[in-house]
Amino acid sequence: MSFNSEIAAATKFSEDELAKYVIEATREVFSTMVMMDPTDDYPLQEPITRFKCSITGMVGFAGTYSGVISIHCPVNLAMKITSNMLGVECDEVGEDLNDAIGEISNMLGGSVKQVLSKGGLDVKLSIPTVISGEDYTVNSLSDNDCVVIPFKVDDEQFIVGLILKKED
Amino acid sequence: MANILIVDDSSTMRKIISRSLRQAGLPIDEIYEAGDGIEGMAALSSGKTINLILSDINMPNMDGLEFVKAARASGNNTPIVMITTEGGEEIIKDAMDSGASSSIKKPFTPDQLQAVLGGML
User: Fold this and answer.
1) How many Cα atoms are found within 13 Å in the side-chain-facing hemisphere of A18?
2) Which fold has domain B2-115?
3) Which one of A64, A83, A154, B16 has the fewest CB atoms closer than 10 angstroms to its CB?
C-alpha cells in the first residue's frame, strides 16, 4: 500500500501519520463507545478486498477532496460490538447491527474530517452506508490511495480503510 | 429527578445515549425518544415535562439546527445540548447561535456526559 504523495502533501500528513491518526480515532471510538480495546497490526501485509459473512460501514467525504472511510468486520464480531454498544445481546443481522456499524463509521468519519479540516480542507460527510453479505468484494481497498489498517480484538480481525482523492 | 428527550434518527444511538446517561449517574426519571426534529417538536408540545434535550445535528426531515430554531421560536426554553460527530467549530457556533445550550462530541464517555450535563439537571 502506498498513499498518493499528492494527497499526502495536500493534507500535510504522511501515510504513516494519517494511519496513526486513524488508529487513534478507531481506538478512541472503541474504548469509549464499544468498551473494547482493539490493537492495530499496521501496516497491512497483504491486500484484503474479499469479505465473507461480514458487514461493512462506510461514510463518504466530499469537498476539496473526496473519499471514503470504512470499517469491515465479521458478522460475529459485529454482533459483539453491537451488544457492547447497546448493553443488550445482539444475535442477528438487523437494524441494531446495521445502525451500530453505521454509527461507528460515522464517528470515524467525524474524527478524520477534523484532521483534514485542520489541514485547511473543506470536507463534508455523507450519511453512513452499511452493507453485509455472505461473500462480497470491496475493490477500493486495493487502490494505491487507500490506507488500510487491520485491527484485532477478541481474537478476531476487523479492518478500517481510508481512501482520499483530490478533486479537480 | 429530571426527564430527558433524546432526538436522534439512529435508534442505536438513542439506546447508547440512554445507557450512557444511566451510567453517568445523573438524576434521571424518564427518557423520551424522537427520531427527528419533527418528532422532537411533537414531544415538546405533548404536555410531557421535559427538563433537558439531547439532539443530534444531522437528521432527515428536520435536522438539529432547525429543531433548535423551531423550539425557541415556539417559546420553549428547555436546555438543548447538541451531540455531534463532527465537532467542527462552525457547526457548534451555528447551533449555539440558534439557541443550543452546549454540545458534546461523539464518541463520549459517561463521565464526559456527567461533566456537561451535571450542572443542567
Assistant:
1) 28
2) Rossmann fold (3.40.50)
3) A154
